[in-house]
Amino acid sequence: LNDDPRSNRFQGHHAPTAGVLYSAQTHIGYEYPGLNYTSASFAHEDIGTGANGSGPCASCHLPGKSHTFEALELDAGVPVAIRNQTLCNTCHRGGTPEVTPARLISLKAGYAQASTILNNYVNNLPGFTNYLNLAITNANYNDTILVPNNAYGAYQNGKLNADEPCAYVHNSIYTRRLLFDSIDWMNNGVLDGTITIDATAFPEAAAWLNANPATGTATRP
To answer: Looking at residue 98, what DSSP letter applies?
Structure first.
């Protein structure tokens, strides 16, 4: 992420789905120095890339040449079916987490709640006092002394959900790490590799980040 010049909107192109999917090439979020944001287990960018494949976007969003471009079948806005469930099942089956409409609903809620936690820290709300004890706003984000780069990066990562609400499925590992590290940093200005989530207030975020049910402690994904 280029932090010079800074911006008060997400610096990646609006609705940066491809940028998130190909994060190993784009590095579209704010990546904290020295940390790894790639994973050998991530394979979504390889979907449909065989000799006769149509690539990941068309494979998921254009099954049967349907020009709705919707990967999900919705009923009153609620996912009831995955249009290319067979494709998902080629990897997500058996011992791996199955991809179902219900699971996607839960993952989406976890992503949204984790984003809320991060933005609560960015805004220095009660119960989420950040290490600067400062609300980062459109009025001060560009002050490099008041808001150091890592804090500005958290401010930027907190905008990802609004610009790419499906990042949790397009690149779940990358998205989890961006939000986790941002929360970790804003809490005390140190990348401890652990955060604590109030599982009563944010149960979906706790589940999405694999927090310990008893303690609320989560380790870096």
So the answer is: P
Q: Let me know: does 120 contact 128? Beta carbons within 8 Å.
A: yes
Rounded to a whole number, what is the distance in angstroms from the first to the last CA of the chain?
21
Q: In angstroms, rounded to a whole number, what is the distance separating the alpha carbons of residues 172 and 20?
A: 9
pTM for this structure?
Answer: 0.91
Q: What is the average per-residue pLDDT within 76-97?
A: 80
Place of tokens 């089956």: 93
Tokens standing for residue 73? 């079948």
Burial bucket for residue 110 (CB in 10 Å: 0-12, 13-18, 19+) = buried
C-alpha triplet 130, 132, 138: angle, nearest 5°: 90
Tokens of 183: 């929360």
Question: Which residues lie closer than 8 Å to 42 by C-beta, 6 or more apart?
Answer: 171, 173, 174
